[in-house]
TrEMBL record:
Job description of the protein: Acetylates the N-terminal alanine of ribosomal protein bS18.
Transferase is among the record's keywords: yes
Entry's Gene Ontology cellular component terms: cytoplasm
Protein species of origin: Mycolicibacterium rhodesiae (strain NBB3)
Protein name per UniProt: [Ribosomal protein bS18]-alanine N-acetyltransferase
Main localization of the protein described in the UniProt heading: cytoplasm
């Protein structure tokens, strides 16, 4: 299987919404219009993963603030269940980390999403807090995780 990574396009919004409904059922998955709004924003960047031309993954990050040093927040990430466990999620998050390079990055993750937590920890994120009932629809809690920029070797 060959996976090609690139920029998410507005024409992908319906597929993203379809994947969200599979991946986040019961947690208020994003509709197509939410993805379209994100893609129009200048301070938000999305990456995609395609296998044989089919969108199988997406991830988005937003720049916070107007002046440096910026902070970033990962808004969402999803990988088609049929393609999970193949390193696609790792590559998508790595692409976002590369984009934010020397900045602090935050994200929220369900406390019961062990595979995602393990992935984020392996990429340098640490748990910095608990947000009770963060996912309003289900009432599930989330951890807030933070990744510091790499230290300057000089």
């Amino acid at each position: 299987m060959s996976v090609v990574y690139g920029k998410l396009k507005p024409s992908d919004a319906a597929r993203c919404a379809e994947l969200e409904s599979q991946l986040f059922e019961g947690d208020d998955p994003w509709p197509e219009r939410a993805f379209l709004a994100e893609l129009r924003a200048k301070h938000i960047h999305y990456v995609s993963a395609r296998a044989d031309g089919k969108l199988v993954g997406y991830a988005g990050i937003a720049r916070l603030g107007r002046v440096r040093p910026y902070e970033y927040e990962i808004h969402t990430i999803g990988v088609d269940p049929e393609y999970q466990g193949r390193g696609i999620g790792r590559r998508l998050v790595s692409e976002l980390i590369e984009l934010a390079c020397d900045s602090v990055i935050f994200l929220e993750v369900r406390t019961d999403n062990t595979p995602a937590i393990s992935l984020y920890e392996s990429l340098g994120f640490v748990n910095v807090g608990l947000r009770r009932r963060y996912y309003r629809a289900s009432g599930a809690d989330a951890y807030t995780m933070k990744r510091l920029p790499p230290e300057d070797p000089s």
